[in-house]
Design goal:
Layout: E1 2-6, E2 15-19, E3 29-39, H1 41-47, E4 64-72, H2 74-80, E5 87-91, E6 100-104, E7 108-110, H3 117-121, H4 124-137, E8 145-148, H5 154-165, E9 169-174, H6 177-185, E10 190-193, H7 199-206, E11 212-217, H8 223-229, E12 231-239, H9 252-258, E13 261-264, H10 272-285, H11 287-291, E14 299-304, H12 308-317, E15 323-327
Parallel strand pairs: 8-9, 8-11, 9-10, 11-12, 12-13, 14-15
Antiparallel strand pairs: 1-2, 3-4, 3-6, 3-15, 4-5, 5-7
Helix pairs in contact: 4-5, 4-10
Length: about 325
């Protein structure tokens, strides 16, 4: 099979097309003929040598795909309600930048009615991440106020739509006025340009001084203290990336007085069983919203898989709004 390999840690140019043996599904797994692969920030980190795949996973990048099941563990497929020939999208442990990909059956979901493979490939990584962190770990409830940092990222566009669909008031931050408008168009109630305004002061102003109930943060670093300061009583800060650094100082007195929770998680190392629980919850509670188009994929660019290096450069430019997707129907021989 053709695949996009990381030849060595480095800049986007280290991504090159190569040939690999076709993977073989094991117990509990399915083999997917890939039509499209989503591009995510962890792929960039893996390319740089900063996010190695877990033991036993493919060394190829790629954490989400869409395509057709062509082989797999029959019992596992039956238990997951899947079948040979079915169109699915899937969260993968790695190996998604390839024409064929193996992943656990429980991490597959049917392509929502009416969606293309390109749209479906943009879903798993961000929807699994947002559901597990905002709704499971952060316990966001209807009527609460939710703040997402980086509202036009793949995570951000998903978080805005899901939080709004489940009854929250949504505040998003973004790095330009145009991106703030994009957040509002997706359903955010308020958008803060963090380059021209203090998100802490604005969040407090927008909530009448009460603060927000849940924050989803991909920055960490010096954001943490400011986020803690704009949480409401019993508020929850959920950290899912550390683009601003791993070290943070905060006012522990606020944590005590307001009964705050500061937590976080990474998805890739979690168990297959845990990811299967997320998939089941998404299928019940979110997939109908996609089928009805109450929420929808947001794709900034679709590029041939052979142009994976350009896709990574685009992601690192931070100019995109939503997801970047690779397609596998136009590869050179």
């Amino acid at each position: 099979m053709k695949a996009i390999e990381i030849t060595r840690p480095g800049a986007p140019e280290v991504l090159v097309q190569g040939l690999r043996p076709d993977p073989v599904p094991g117990a509990g797994e399915v083999l997917i003929r890939v039509a499209a692969s989503g591009v995510n920030r962890p792929d960039v980190l893996q390319r740089k040598g900063a996010y190695p795949p877990p033991p036993g996973a493919s060394d190829l990048p790629g954490l989400e795909v869409a395509g057709v099941i062509v082989d797999g563990d029959a019992a596992a497929m039956a238990a997951a309600g899947l079948s040979i020939g079915q169109r699915v999208c899937a969260l993968t442990p790695g190996g998604g930048y390839a024409e064929l990909c193996v992943t656990p059956a429980v991490q597959c979901l049917p392509v929502p009615d009416g969606l293309s493979d390109l749209e479906a490939a943009s879903l798993p990584e961000t929807f699994f991440t947002v559901w597990s962190n905002v709704f499971m770990r952060g316990a966001l409830q209807p009527g609460e106020t939710f703040l997402v940092q980086g509202g036009t990222s793949g995570i951000g566009v998903t978080a805005i739509q899901l939080a709004k669909a489940f009854g929250a008031t949504v505040i998003a931050t973004a790095g330009s006025d145009d991106k703030c408008q994009a957040c509002l168009a997706l359903g955010a109630d308020h958008a803060i340009n963090y380059r021209t305004a203090d998100f802490q002061a604005e969040a407090l102003r927008l909530t009448g001084g009460r603060g927000v109930d849940v924050i989803l943060d991909m920055v960490a670093g010096d954001y943490v203290a400011r986020e803690v300061a704009c949480l409401a009583e019993d508020g929850r800060l959920v950290i899912i990336a550390v683009q601003g650094g791993t070290k943070a100082q905060l006012d522990a007195g606020l944590v005590l007085r307001r009964r705050l929770t500061v937590t976080g998680s990474t998805l890739r190392p979690r168990s297959v069983a845990f990811k299967g629980e997320i998939a089941a919850a998404l299928r019940r509670q979110v997939w109908p919203l996609l089928a009805s188009r109450r929420i929808h994929p947001v794709i900034h660019a679709v590029m041939p898989a052979a142009e994976a290096a350009a896709a990574h450069a685009l992601m690192e430019s931070n100019q995109h709004v939503g997801k970047i997707v690779l397609r596998w129907d136009a590869l050179p021989a």
